[in-house]
């Protein structure tokens, strides 16, 4: 499991100071990126090798709003790893530690040119499998 904290900025909110629903996906993306970085995944290096990771499906549950200037915490948990795909459960908590949003995120590894599935790089795959255990 990996945890990141973010401040909610004006640009994240609507006219009422509430986080705009689509911006939760940005928070999840940033948290997944940092989690994968902690496991040895660096986007630039993999892109140079012709590999990119994509989101293939997202299921989101919005439970409570987050507000302007609030400090939120995003927890990311790897819940599945296969040869060309990996899945997360991500949860956002507000400053009162209440669950405000949850997402199941299904990702895949593809060849940057052909856009076809490609094996998750071995070193990263091994680190992901270790995270599951």
Describe this structure in a few short sentences.
By secondary structure, the protein is α+β, with helices and mostly antiparallel strands.
Counting helices, strands and paired strands, the structural category is: alpha+beta
From the alpha carbons, calculate the radius of gyration and give it in angstroms: 16 Å
Order of the strands making up the biggest sheet: 1-3-4-5-2
| SSE succession | EHHEEEEH
| Tally of strands | 5
First-to-last CA distance? 11 Å
Question: Beta-strand level of the residues, as a percent range?
Answer: 35-45%
In DSSP terms (H or I, runs of 4 or more residues), the helix count works out at 3
What would the principal axes of the Cα set say about the shape? elongated
The description of the largest β-sheet is: 5 strands, antiparallel
Low-confidence stretches: none
Overview of the molecule:
The protein is an alpha+beta fold. The protein is built from 3 helices and 5 strands. The protein has a 5-stranded antiparallel beta sheet. A hairpin with a 3-residue loop joins strand 3 and strand 4. The longest helix is centred in the first third of the chain and has 16 residues, at 23-38. It is elongated and about 45 Å long. The termini are close together. The relative contact order is 0.22.
Q: Strands, helices and their partners?
A:
Blueprint: E1 2-7, H1 23-38, H2 43-48, E2 51-62, E3 71-81, E4 85-93, E5 99-111, H3 122-132
Antiparallel strand pairs: 1-3, 2-5, 3-4, 4-5
